[in-house]
Design goal:
This protein is an alpha/beta fold. 41% of the residues lie in helices and 23% in strands. The protein folds into 2 domains: 254 residues, Aldolase class I (TIM Barrel), CATH 3.20.20.70; 73 residues, Arc Repressor Mutant, subunit A (Orthogonal Bundle), CATH 1.10.10.920. The chain is built from 16 helices and 15 strands. α1 runs parallel beside α2. The radius of gyration is 21 Å and the shape is globular. Bound molecules: iron/sulfur cluster (SF4).
């Protein structure tokens, strides 16, 4: 029988400073909790290990927050627990997220010694005035230094996150960012359109009329520019916001989009297992109390119906450039998916939002711009 494989996500909810656009579960100023939180993560890993003893971990992703903010000894404690209590596949992709300005020689060499083989660095923009506007703690030269250091320590699989649609960002700024990023010999680029969320600094400024969102046309022009340049430079687009050199797609995220199962550890971490989606409380103290009591506190918990699972399969699959193979999904769900969504697919084809090649449907260029319009057809 084929071995069951899982992704493992570990959330580190601490940052040096809250960025102006960020609505992720992450908090500055909780240094006093770092050690106890690490203990809770270790306890949760140990507590949950028996449930997953029959499965092997194929990807590990330490995300945040800013995991690289923690003293490396905490990451060592966490990963030593993973290695002691879980079966890890030999070719496991193991990623840590980092922020320029929080990396140093000791951390990078500890990460390598732990088998971390993929580094994700939040660059966001190459202009210090935009980094400042975003509330980032680093400058562009901090990114360059972090990258040099990472390469010196043997990291060859490196992602940079960049953002477009930043208020006051010009098309020329974006051209500069895209072109500079292409000169760094990276393997992966994540390229996101800024969304101004309620409850963030940007959200409040917007409510007060003090911040103007980028107009849609410029936002799309920036996106198309990046897609074009990345593709010319050998970064194939494989998801709406993700680009990779051959064989360097992020396997951990591919598992999400392909609806593979994964375990989430830490405050706010989501899990998907046995058709059940659940999430730990994102409140750090509440999370730690739950673990201490031996009962993780959940903020979400739902078992998916067949209809909900199919809907997810279509929506997540369409995020990927390879699209959705209707015959394969039909086999998996035991019904004719082409028939089930016949009207919806015909509508999307007529609007040129998706294209069909044999059994496979995928987003067109227009569909990539209007992905949410496509997705609602499968809800
Ligand atoms: S570093 Fe990342 S997680 Fe932390 S506040 Fe900024 S955007 Fe949010």
């Amino acid at each position: 029988m084929e071995q069951k494989t899982l992704g493992l996500y570990i959330h580190i909810p601490f940052c040096k400073k809250k960025c102006s656009y960020c609505d992720f579960p992450s908090w500055p100023g909780l240094e006093d909790y770092w050690e106890a939180y690490t203990g809770s993560v270790v306890d949760e890993l140990v507590m949950k290990a028996p449930e997953f003893s029959h499965a092997a971990i194929k990807t590990i992703f330490i995300g945040g927050g800013t995991p690289s903010l923690l003293p490396y000894q905490y990451i060592v404690r966490i990963l030593d627990t993973v290695f002691a209590h879980y079966k890890i596949l030999p070719d496991c992709e193991s990623t840590i997220e980092s922020n320029p300005g929080t990396l140093d020689e000791n951390k990078l060499s500890a990460y390598r010694a732990l088998g971390i083989n993929r580094l994700s660095i939040g660059l966001q923009a190459c202009q210090n005035r935009l980094l400042n506007k975003l509330g980032r703690i680093h400058t562009f030269s901090d990114f360059e230094n972090a990258l040099d250091l990472a390469k010196k320590h043997g990291f060859s699989n490196i992602n940079a996150d960049i953002i477009f649609g930043i208020p006051d960002q010009t098309f020329e700024d974006w051209q500069e960012t895209v072109n500079k990023v292409l000169h760094f010999d990276l393997t992966h680029i994540s390229c996101y359109s800024l969304i101004i969320e309620e409850g963030t600094v940007f959200g409040r400024l917007k409510e007060e009329g003090l911040l103007h969102e980028m107009d849609e046309e410029l936002d799309r022009r920036m996106y198309h520019y990046a897609v074009e340049l990345f593709s010319r430079a050998g970064f194939a687009q494989y998801e709406i916001s993700n680009f990779a050199k051959p064989d360097y797609q992020c396997r951990h995220n591919m598992n999400y989009w392909e609806r593979g199962e994964y375990i989430g550890i830490g405050a706010g971490a989501h899990s998907f297992y046995s058709n059940r989606r659940y999430a730990n409380s994102s409140d750090v103290l509440s999370y730690m109390k739950g673990i201490c009591e031996g009962r993780p506190r959940l903020s979400e918990d739902s078992s998916l119906s067949a209809e909900e699972s199919l809907s997810e399969k279509m929506i997540l699959g369409l995020r990927l450039n390879k699209g959705v193979d209707l015959a394969q999904v039909s086999g998996e769900f035991g019904l004719d998916v082409g028939k089930r969504y016949q009207k919806n697919i015909e509508f999307l084809l007529s609007r040129k939002l998706v294209e069909r090649s044999g059994d496979v449907i995928s987003l067109t260029k227009l569909g990539l711009d209007l992905a949410n319009t496509v997705f609602v057809q499968f809800i």
